[in-house]
Amino acid sequence: MAALTFAVDRLAAATVLTCHGALVAASAMQLETALSQLLLRPQPRIVIDLAKVTAIDCTGVMMLRVTAGIALEQGGSLVLALPTPQVVHTLREGGTLSTIETYRSLESALAADPQGLITDADVAAQSTGTQWPMNADRRRSA
Fold first, then answer.
1. What are phi and psi of 85, to 5 degrees?
2. Is 97 helix (H, G, I), strand (E, B) or coil?
């Protein structure tokens, strides 16, 4: 099983779930358990801190999308903060960067500051002329 740990901080503005490790198929049950507990509150406002997430796959992305939908149905929200370039790449490829608000900092996520949002255009501009770390690894091993 992939190593994944969480820390939960209940703040006035939101509940922050800080993830450490890989959000992948092997850790999906751990993620589901943590998120389902956060959804028990009325009108849940959840910020997921991704700064220490080493990898994310389609299962992790799907779990985030489903949870964001459930939070919205309950009158709340789920947003993402501080994703690494590798995580941003996967979110963008999965179409999630445009469906779940993703912020550059925890402070902007807590304040819902639109100036702090990461957009598809930001990612495209940033990736021009640079390699994403995961793509660079693939080229070396080919």
1. -55, -40
2. coil
Question: Phi and psi dihedrals of 130, rounded to 5?
Answer: -125, 155
Alpha carbon distance 95, 11 (integer Å):
29
Judged on CB neighbours under 10 Å (0-12, 13-18, 19+), 43 is: exposed
Q: What is the pLDDT of residues 92-101, one digit of tens each?
A: 998 899 899 9
Task: Answer yes or no: are the C-beta atoms of 122 and 116 closer than 8 Å.
Answer: no
pLDDT of 136 strictly over 70: no
For residue 57, how many other CB atoms are within 10 A of its CB?
17
Which pTM value belongs to this model?
Answer: 0.84
Residue 83 above 80 pLDDT?
yes
52: region left, alpha or beta (phi > 0 left; psi from -120 to 50 alpha): alpha
